[in-house]
Amino acid sequence: MTSPLLHAMTVDVEDWYQVSGYEGAVDRATWHERESRVVRATGLVLDVLASRGVRATFFTLGWVAARHPALVREIAARGHEVASHGWDHRLASSLTRDELRDDLRRTADALEAACGHRPVGWRAPSFSVGRDNLWVHDLLRAEGYAYSSSVFPVRHDRYGIPDFPRRPVFLRGEDGRGLWEFPMTTARLLGRNWPVAGGGWMRLLPGAVMRAALRRVEAEGVPVAVYLHPWELDPGQPTVPQAPWRARVRHRLNLDRTRPRLERLLDTMRFAPMGDVLATLDPATGTPAHPATPGASLC
Ligand SMILES: [Zn+2]
């Protein structure tokens, strides 16, 4: 049985060697020498989504868009929303305001050159919006963005704001303009927030446990944000032996389970691009204001 609420399906489009966990082991200066598998792996994601008739948001690196513009065009042509994941996966928390502005503009230029539209959504690499750089929301508003999906309300060694709201929040600036922050989905258990909706967590948790947790969030009337990466559907990707063991375990755990779990999830809940989901929400509550009416994709 499918669910009544509309949820956000999101994909962070980056190649297998561009993840933050490998940052110390794979120098950006060597990225162009690596075997690029992002086109094929993203094609797998597109095919799974097409098999279930689901559209999604693809937060895409500018670096990838500049080298594979046809991939970005295909994502848009298949009806999905193209959004920004920044230029080359530098953490937002490591950038000054001017550096992040340049990063946003350079990425938007590459995405626009590829598919003809500027992005209105952004996801910080590795959810790198924390307490110390919440100013990014003002910058995004000024740059014309409609939403961010960059805060993880959990305790984690690399990211997170544990007490951030667990539902989308509409942040109004001093100029009166608003911007949504759609945080990563967490479930409440034992007085803590637990990540349940994507990435390594989707591969670590038993599928039934994940689906039950998402159902609980749905029962709260809150839309879920699921996220995954194309490389998570690619068990044949090269290994990076020089990376720290923790990063290697997180990266490679149960890669063969991503696809069947994604398919099962798509059969269980209703999904749409994040921009479409946010369009159904009441800014005052972050919950649906009216019945879902998925519209044309944003790019
Ligand atoms: Zn990423």
Concise description?
With 299 residues, the protein is α/β, with parallel strands linked by helices. The chain has helices at 38-52, 62-67, 69-77, 97-115, 136-142, 199-204, 207-219, 245-252, 258-268, 274-278; strands spanning 6-13, 57-60, 81-84, 121-122, 147-148, 169-172, 178-181, 186-189, 192-195, 225-228, 270-272.
Notes on the protein architecture:
With 299 residues, the chain is of the alpha/beta class. Helix content is 33%, strand content 14%. The protein has 10 helices and 11 strands. Strands 1, 2, 3, 10 and 11 form a 5-stranded parallel beta sheet that branches. A hairpin with a 2-residue loop joins β8 and β9. α1 packs parallel to α9 (258-268) and α3 (69-77) crosses α4 (97-115). Residues 294-299 have low confidence and may be disordered. Bound molecules: zinc ion (ZN). Residues 12, 14, 85, 89, 125 line the site of zinc ion.
Entry keywords:
299 residues; alpha/beta; TIM Barrel; 5-stranded parallel β-sheet; 4-stranded mixed β-sheet; disordered C terminus; binds zinc ion
Radius of gyration in whole Å, from Cα? 18 Å
Percent in strands: 5-15%
**Which small-molecule species are bound to the chains here?**
zinc ion
Give the name of the CATH superfamily: Glycoside hydrolase/deacetylase
Task: Output the CATH class name.
Answer: Alpha Beta
